[in-house]
Design brief:
The protein is mostly helical. The chain has 14 helices and no strands. It has one domain: Orthogonal Bundle (MetI-like fold), CATH 1.10.3720.10. α4 runs parallel beside α7 and α4 packs across α10.
Length: 292
Amino acid sequence: MSAVLPLDDTAHDPGFWVRLWRGKPLGVAGAAVLALFLVCGVLADVISPYGFNEIAPADRLQAPGVAHWFGTDNLGRDVLSRCLYGAQLSVIIGCSAALLATLISALVGIASGYFGGKVDLAVQRVVDAWMSFPDLVVLIVVVSVLGPGMPQIIGTLGLLLGIGGSRIVRSAVVSVREHMYVHAAQSIGAAAPRILWRHVLPNVLAPIIVLLTTRVGTVILAESSLSFLGLGVPPPTPTWGAMLSGSGRTYMFEGPWLALAPGLCLTAVVYATNVFGDALRDLLDPRMRGGR
């Protein structure tokens, strides 16, 4: 009698990207839009038709056309070029602050969730106190004291979002630490750093990845809010928020494209990151996709 071989579920797994393409077409579209903005931001110096501060008074407030696809502003500067350089700044700030926030969330959440007890109690009370302050107020105070600039914005946003996001990582670690493989590693005398690196971190990597993708859109939106209030990266460097606050608000009725162009760029990239993050959550979390 021949032996019955167990079914191998992995043989029928089409792969992550295939499941994303088949099951989450909106997530694929969000990833494509996000990748497009990333490429435009990185290659802004190459693909921009004009300099971001190149003034042409004769072309003042021209409507979108062949020479200027997004039109020109009140000084004759090309709006498309300024949007591309604004994307470059948003890419740097968004990715840097999101990476910093995710790293802080992972470190604080894993330590608090794994060790528990008094360590967890002390850390969570600090997190509660930190989260009681409104984020925008803290941002305005820090930038007002330290001055506007990219390092200040990246550091403050990374700290704000990182401490608050540690709750998500902690909740995942609390459930993972009760699994049998963690208890088995503890019973054979494995050190805590080895358990955290080999057993806990790989099993909470999915929510950390989702947290990273969603933080990118949040950071870009927060930076644009600061720039709109005049507390972001100082001029003449263009940012989407500053374009909305400056010429976009002043000449909005004479040239609607001055507000529409940066506003649509901001809306598209934030919506794309959120949609892509939701798709990743549905695919990486077994509870969302039903598991096997």
